[in-house]
Amino acid sequence: MAANDRTFIVFLGPPGSGKGTQARILEQKLGLPQVATGDLFRYNLKNQTELGLLARKYMDAGELVPDEVTVRMVEERLAREDCARGAILDGFPRSLPQAVALDEMLAPYGGVTVVPLFQVDDDVVVERISGRRVCRNCGAVYHVKFNPPKQEGICDVCGGELYQRDDDRPETVKNRLYVYYKHTAPLIGYYFARGLLAEIDANQPVADVTAALEAVLAERGIQV
To answer: Under CATH, which number does the domain 3-121+185-219 receive?
Structure first.
């Protein structure tokens, strides 16, 4: 396979826009791995890799992990065999410096192929995330509106207590949106100027968003 045959899809959108869900669906259909920065951090921290230990040093000091460390984690992940045909990037880049680093990283392979932007209303984001409930015992996830348990506050799977994570509280979600608009939203203009951006209405049900995503990819010559 020629180097420029690789497909690199960058997912953009606020928290709660369904990027992770769509990345997992697309991973199954295209056979391209989902590369999520959250997963990379958890892997490196759990296995105490060189990069994990470096990231831990900053985290323990209450400091932000530098872009350089995150970029190295992504670069190492994309070098693995399962990314030989490309990858779906979920949660990276999150800033302009990271986007520039990704361009340099992918330059030998033809660069980023397409950037779907999952557009969703702020109030929908708050509803989606703040309604989430997690089982303290088995980790099963529910939603008070979209996927409620049979008995309020009780896990269907193991009977454990359901709770709302601190990250899912409305005030925290609004702060996460603020961080997104401040640091990640500038990437919209960056990729739009290069003709890579493709907007998708993510207020719709999951199946409709998937159909819209597949239509966008087909326009770029990526058949799902």
So the answer is: 3.40.50.300
